[in-house]
Specification:
Radius of gyration: 23 Å
Shape: globular
Number of strands: 25
Largest sheet: 8 strands, mixed
Strand content: 15-25%
Distance between the termini: 38 Å
Structural class: alpha/beta
Helix content: 25-40%
Length: about 550
């Protein structure tokens, strides 16, 4: 596929730039915007995916059609996982400008102040909550306006959902019965509470990173975006990253960077690119037949992800999307409502209602998150069930299990993904406790009128080991891989990056995406990834 150059002139082979950004996903779009703001900086953005010229990238409910579709999704798949009782999972990643922000849940969630303070306490100055809050506020355009917690007028639109459901309204009362208070904002640093998620939409349309940050600045003559540009390797000369080799269709090209290269290809593609370039564990690289440029054993390690346990309850006396979707007349009405008012079920994020709480008294802050949906299906990409039901997913926010992403052949662009879900005993304990809490939630008086009955995993499963095994049967990724090229202090031999996102031992090279997180944040990961990109741009623009 030939490159689509949406900004600037087509770069000839060997063209020189000041900055090269690899990946136009959630982080790369922020970087493209910030680095090109000064007309003196020549910026090239290389994106292996395509343009966002498909309607389902923009209608919020389009995630149902995008995830699992090779037009929109790189279609990665994990290796079989012992903790999932031998199952392998689809591992969606956005194949388009905007990256995963073009197909994700649109949930705006920063995490907890304690997450970032924890990064600082690891020995990473500049990453505490007080440091990152201005980064979030800088690019935010919050529907409620500017405040101490939120920004206004930025590129990243945050709105309230445009549809409510009676059974989700009742979930707030159900949570209160378990001691969880209602909240109208999960993003002030303490997300303990229950309420509707705020979403990255604008007047009923998905607001992706490409829509907010990238496309509005493609008129800049100093910014060049190449799509369909598959990066093959970094070129390192005398310990400095100087160029990128990439392929457009069958043609190989090289672009040179006078100042810096920044990788924002994501937690799957970034470690794979580093290994193809000879940066990683020396023994592993030798086995691949790749010359070692820099021995960094942490590359591809430290993979963390949120495993959601998808429980399904049949319900009565209330509308759910399952039933509404069966009627052609109602589907026509949904389409008309969206066309005329930008409201209704077509504006739905995959999950509308959230609850953050502790699974036990030994946790200082909420360690589990609920995603509650007025629908059910076997997996994304499959049709909705025909019976009335809800999905009550719960995930461990700070899993102890660690996985890896590595190449197993030198030219491989499909790395082996081994999440190792539920490999840690603590995670199995939290999983069992979480499933019990789901049952308590659905047994509250507030939900009694809906008569919820457990369909999956099954009310007959009660013992700890049985529940942990059931978690392996119903668990699936919630699409939050992080940590595979992590920041760490100087004394950490597994640290790939320093606190300024610089790759250790290679000059003029940074990583600014979810792979840089040393520990996963306690919530959805898109917003923290964009804050990392915001910080990277500041550091790059002020570097000597």
């Amino acid at each position: 596929m030939m490159a689509n150059l949406l900004g600037g002139a087509s770069p000839p082979n060997g063209a020189d730039f000041d900055f090269i950004v690899v990946g136009a996903g959630s982080a790369g779009c922020v970087l493209a915007n910030r680095l090109s703001a000064d007309a003196r900086h020549r910026v090239l953005v290389l994106e292996a995916g395509g343009k966002d010229d498909w309607i389902w990238f923009h209608v919020p409910v389009g995630y149902l059609f995008a995830i699992g579709n090779p037009r929109a999704d790189w279609m990665f798949r994990t290796e079989p996982c012992d903790g999932l009782n031998g199952r392998a999972l689809n591992y969606p990643r956005g194949k388009v400008i905007g990256g995963c922000s073009a197909i994700n849940a649109m949930i705006y969630m920063r995490g907890q102040a304690a997450d970032f303070d924890g990064w600082r306490q690891l020995g990473l100055p500049g990453w505490g909550w007080d440091d990152v809050l201005p980064l979030f506020r800088k690019h935010e355009d919050h529907f409620a306006g500017a405040s101490e917690a939120h920004g206004a007028g930025g590129e990243w639109r945050v709105e309230s959902p445009r549809i409510r459901w009676p059974i989700l309204d009742a979930m707030a009362e159900a949570a209160a019965e378990l001691g969880v208070p209602p909240t109208d904002d999960f993003n002030r640093g303490d997300n303990f509470g229950a309420g509707y998620f705020q979403v990255n939409q604008k007047r009923g349309r998905r607001w992706s990173a490409a829509t907010g940050f990238l496309k509005p600045v493609l008129h800049r003559p100093n910014l060049t975006l190449a799509t369909g540009a598959a990066v093959e390797r970094l070129v390192v000369e005398n310990g400095r990253a100087v160029a990128i080799d990439y392929r457009v269709g069958g043609e190989r090209r090289r672009a040179r960077a006078a100042r810096e290269i920044v990788l924002s290809a994501g937690a799957v593609a970034t470690p794979a690119l580093l290994e193809r370039s000879g940066i990683g564990d020396g023994a592993r690289l030798q086995a691949l037949g790749v010359e070692t440029v820099r021995h960094l054993p942490g590359v591809g390690e430290n993979l963390q992800d949120h495993l959601q346990l998808r429980t399904i309850f049949t319900v009565e006396n209330t509308p759910t999307m399952n039933v509404l979707y069966q009627s052609l007349l109602r589907r026509a009405w949904m389409g008309l409502d969206y066309a005329l008012r930008r409201r209704g079920p077509l504006t739905m994020a995959p999950s509308q209602f959230g609850i953050f709480m502790r699974s036990g008294a030994d946790y200082a802050t909420p360690n589990i998150e609920f995603h509650i949906q007025p629908l059910s299906l076997d997996k994304f990409g499959d049709p909705l069930h025909t019976f009335p039901a809800i999905t009550v997913s719960v995930c461990n926010l700070r899993p102890a299990s660690r996985g890896s992403i590595h190449l197993e052949a030198p030219g491989d662009d499909r790395p082996k993904i081994r999440p190792n879900y539920l490999s840690a005993e603590e995670d199995r304990r939290v999983a069992a406790d979480s499933l019990r809490i789901v049952r308590k939630l659905c047994a509250t008086q507030a939900l009694a009128r809906f008569a919820p009955k457990e369909r999956l995993p099954g009310a007959h499963i009660v013992a700890d080991e049985e529940l942990a095994r059931a978690a392996g049967d119903v668990g699936t990724t919630i699409f939050h891989p992080v940590g595979t090229a992590a920041m760490g202090p100087d004394h950490d031999p597994r640290a790939v990056l320093d606190a300024q996102l610089r790759l250790r031992g290679v000059d003029a090279l940074r990583v600014a995406d979810a792979s840089a997180m040393p520990r996963i944040t306690s919530g959805n990961t898109a917003a923290p990834t964009m804050a990392i990109a915001e910080r990277a741009a500041q550091l790059m623009l002020t570097a000597p």
